[in-house]
Structure formats: structure tokens, C-alpha cells
Design brief:
heterodimer; A: 230 residues; mainly alpha; B: alpha+beta; six-stranded mixed beta sheet
Chain lengths: 230, 354
Amino acid sequence: MNTINFDLSPAWISIKVTLTATTIIFFIGLATAWRMTNYKGKWKGLIDGILTLPLVLPPTVAGFAILLLIGKNGPIGNFLEIFGVNIIFSWYAAVIAAIVVAFPLMYKTSMGAFEQIDSNILSAARTLGASEWKVFWRVAVPVAWPGIAAATALTFARCLGEFGATLMVAGSIPGKTETIPIAIYFATQGGEMQVALIWVLIIFAISLTVIVFMNYWNSYKTKQRFGAGE
Amino acid sequence: MEFYVDIQKKFQGFKLDVQLKSQYDIIGILGASGSGKSMLLRCISGLVKPDKGKIIINGKTFFDSDKKINLSMRDRKVGFLFQNYALFPNMTIEENIAFGLDKLPKQDRKHKVAGLLEKYHLENIEKRFPAQISGGQQQRVALARAVAYEPDILLLDEPFSALDVHLRNHMMREMSESLKEFQGMTLFVTHNREEAYRLCDHIAVFNAGKVEVFGEKNELFQRPASLETAKITGCKNIAKAIRLTENTIDVPSWGIQIKTSMKIKHENGYVGIRANHLKIVADDTKENCYKAFIADESDGPFRISLYLKIGSKPEKLDDFHIQCEMSKEQRETIKNRTETLYLYMNPEHVFFCL
């Protein structure tokens, strides 16, 4: 039996990228979803379409768009170059790719949860003198929590599995930008089936753990609120 | 206390056009569903912005389209009791009541919440969540939460409609007590005339987005001034009528003339008499007595309604003029369903409206 040369760095890179991206998406996604829930203007359909677009486009299209923006000749890339910063092919680029691709999941799912809230509850909070900030954090988010938790779990899983856009903007530099999905791809290409299999099992375990944990935690919360009584 | 509302609001083929001025503590708003009474509450609370007009409560201008004033919901100090109570499902009873008290120091807030829990009989359930308590308790929590904020005006939107009948009576008595203690104005919206009568001394009748009448409740129920008021206050016998003299009217569709104790001023209008004010008597020697025959009857748990045709025998079940309500004992004095009855309309109870 031949020993396999196994490098764990893709795991750390994946976790770092996924947690950072999920945290950022959580706040931006919730804020956007809440604003869009309350926005009743005529542009709603268009704005919603643009925000949801990355969900239906191939990740390579998202990757291409990001390259245009933050690449050496892109507007943002140009600007950052003044300070000597280059994002392309760094783990930040992987974070940006994950954010762009997974954002619509957070936005769409939590907006669905916000729209389910009985509007009387929000009105009651406002008549009791609550600021919009308080209405959001003390009422809207906790009431919509099961939906928001599901959205977060989906976002996490999507970030962890991101491949196409990441490969285009962050490349596959071992120990720097090589995430688990990319490691699986190159291991398979190079014929190292055992290495690929180990990574497949690891990603399987992480995804399942997160989703199962979310489910149990949610049902615990729900039981606390609605259990007993009746 | 002063209540002044003069607003207009158009929406989806419906127009709300309300002028209402009052100095009373409790005002009842009685109207069928879709008459715009809930929309009025929404305008007062700031949920909906009227197109035009003024809302002034206790000297505080909530809305004035001329002066471009439109206070936000949180600046109006309005206590809104929603039909479904709208309690925060993620907070305990205690936290629900304390929600509007952020500005108080912690000690005062605790003290106040404890006092309200006691007053509204919620002491042993303060750590529970809204989904774990009964409908009556939920209503008390909602009221305690609204009152805790010390609003200038309390808006009650059909507060009893989500409750069982037996609980409803009990909660109505409790509510009546609470409202007497409340140091502000109350607007009570309902489609149920009994609730309105029991809780309020002054009632505004709503019809098609307008205030039809506003007045003292007994006046309103005994002498409704309009056809819609007569209907909404539950009068079952209404027919077109023509003035003959100052105290007599002709009712062509019933084929009779009726004496009234109220003075008739207009040529054309409607006559009304409530089903429970009609009496079955022995003969028609007195005035306002008419021959009548039973067309149909419906059996309630305690009272019976007879559907009567005046003057001649009915041909089918729905061939009747008038509905008369009586106790089961009274019904038993009529032996034969086909016999001739004598119906008496007390002139005191007959009203004429426009």
C-alpha cells in the first residue's frame, strides 16, 4: 500500500473563506431582504431580479464579472492598485466570489421569512414607540428566525461548495487559495482518487453537521416558544 | 378629552369620508364589515396616511394635510388592540408588556410590569410565551401591553371576535372595567351591536365609509334616524311608509295604517318596529292591532321567531311581512298554527326614519 501525501491546508482555507463570506452575507443579506420587504415601489421587480441573478447564472459568468471589476484593469482593481493591493488570486477573491454567488440564497430565503410575518405584529411594535432598528432586531428577526436560520445554513453550504467563480478569480494556489472543492477537482484530474475521496467525505461531513445542527437548534427554539401549554 | 377627525381617503373603489367630533371617553364605532371602520383606526394610528384632512386627539395634531403634519406611528402615542392581539411570539408575557417601556429606569419598569401583571390576572404565567396561554389571557396581555405605554387614545379593533361565546361575555365585563379605569380616550370598533351597546354610551354608525349618525346609544337603538342605522342596530321589520297625518303613516306593502307617538315630519320614509316589541293580543278592538297569520317559524334555544303575514293567509313559507319574537311560553299559548292572530304595535315603539 502506498502512502498518500495529504495536505490539510484546503480545509483551513475553505473554513476561513466560508465563515468570512457567510458572516458578511448574513448581515448584508438580512438588511437587503428587510429593505426589499418594506419597499413597495415600482422598481421592486427589477431590483429583485438583479439581486437574484447570480443564483441562476453559471458561476463562471459571476467569476467573469468579478474579474472585470477587481482585475488589474477593472475599476476597483485599478483603484486598489494605488495602495499596492491586489485582490485577484488571494483568499479575499475567494471570499468575494462566494459572497456574489451565495448572496441570493440568503436574500431570497430570508425575504420569504420576513414576508410571512403578521404585519399587525410589526405595527404593534411601532405603535409602542419602537424605532425601526428595534422593530428589526427585537421583532422581525426573532419572529422570522426559523427561515433566517435555514437561509444561513443554505448560504454556508453554498459558500463551502463554491467552485467555478472561485477558480476563476482566486485560482488554485496550494496553501493560499486552494479550497476543498478545488482540491477535489485537481486530485481527480491528477488521478489521486484516494485524496479526492477523503476530501469528498470531509465536505460531506461538514455540510451534514451544519444542516443537522441548524434543524435541531430550530426545533428546540420552536418548542421553547410553542411547546407545553395547549 | 377631545377627539377631532375630519379625513378623506380613497382606495380601490372605496372612499372613506369621516367627520367625527366628540368629547366622550368611549366612542363605539358600529358598522358592517367593509364599511371602513377599521380603515379609520388605521388612519388614526398612522398605519395609513389619509389623502386629506385633520386628526387631532387631545390637542395633539396627528395629521394635518394643510400644515403638512403627519406624525409617525411611534410619535402618536396610540394604543392599538388588534383583532388577533398581535403579541410578540418570541417574547414572554412579561417581555411583551415591557416592550414599550424602554425609556423607564430598570427598577420602575419592573415595578410597572408587576403591577400590570397583577391587575390583569397574569401573575402566574408571566414567563410563558403567547402561544402557551388562552385566548382570554392573550387579550389581557395585549391590553396590558397597550395600557403600559400610557397612550392618549386606545383603539380597539373587534377585540372579542376571536373569542368563544362564553368567554366573550366574561371578557366584555372585564374590558368594561378596564376602560373605566383607563385615563384616556377609547375608540371601540365592532360589527356587533350588542358589544357596542354594552361597552359604549355613545355610538357612531358607519356605512359605506361615512358616519351615518353619532349619538347616545338609547336614542340610537330606539329611534334610529336612518334606514341604515335601523338595519345595523338590528331592526328586522322595516318597510316603506308615507305620511298621512302628524301621527299616522300608511304602509302600502303591509296594507295597513299605523299610529305613531313620534311626530312625522317628512312625506316619505321608512317605518320600523323591532321583532321583540311586537305583541300577540286577544282581539283587534284597540288601535294599531292587525289580523295576522303564521307563514313560518324558527326555533331558537330560548326564543321563537314567528314570520307573520298581515291581513290574509300566506301561500308559502316565505310569504310574510313581519317578524315577531317571543318566549317559548308565549308561543305555547297559540294552539293552532293556522288560527287568526292579532298583532299589536305599540305606538311608542314604532319609529319613522329616512
